[in-house]
Design brief:
The chain contains two helices and five strands, in the order H-E-E-E-E-E-H. The protein is an alpha+beta fold. Helix 1 packs antiparallel against helix 2.
Length: about 140
């Protein structure tokens, strides 16, 4: 069973890397100015199964304005947010926009690699620990 969990973690990490490169291959890099920051309420689970300890938090989603190829202003809402408002209104940042999904974009960052690396590392860790029977109870002869 642990092998399946390890493969799931590693598979998710590999999928994230592949998706990142596929997006980068079709995306265009443009400079955008932050014109608004949307606040969305989300909640996080403590992971222990105790729903009473879940907490609400605010996710901040930057909205950029870019100048399109014809000189028209376009509004681009980021597909990635943060729990800390890091981007002040009026600041300029390089963003990636996807021509297949107009009106959306994401900041240029390596966060995808960080999360992918953590998933792959978790999968490898679980696999190795299962291989060496670390998670199994010791067998005691009577």
């Amino acid at each position: 069973m642990l092998i399946v969990i390890a493969l799931i973690f590693a598979g998710v990490g590999i999928f994230m890397i592949v998706e990142h490169f596929r997006f980068r291959a079709r995306a265009e890099t443009v400079e955008g100015e932050v014109i608004e920051v949307l606040e969305r309420q989300s909640w996080s689970s403590p992971g222990s199964g105790n729903a009473d300890q879940a907490r609400n938090y605010t996710q901040y989603i930057p909205v950029y304005q870019i100048i399109g190829p014809n000189g028209e202003k376009q509004r681009i809402e980021s597909t990635q947010g943060s729990s800390k408002m890091k981007l002040p209104i009026g600041s300029r940042h390089k963003i990636l926009i996807d021509p297949q999904h107009p009106g959306t974009g994401r900041p240029i960052s390596n966060n995808a690699f960080m999360w992918a690396a953590m998933c792959i590392a978790a999968g490898i860790f679980i696999f190795v620990m299962d291989w060496y029977d670390i998670f199994h109870a010791p067998h005691r002869g009577i």
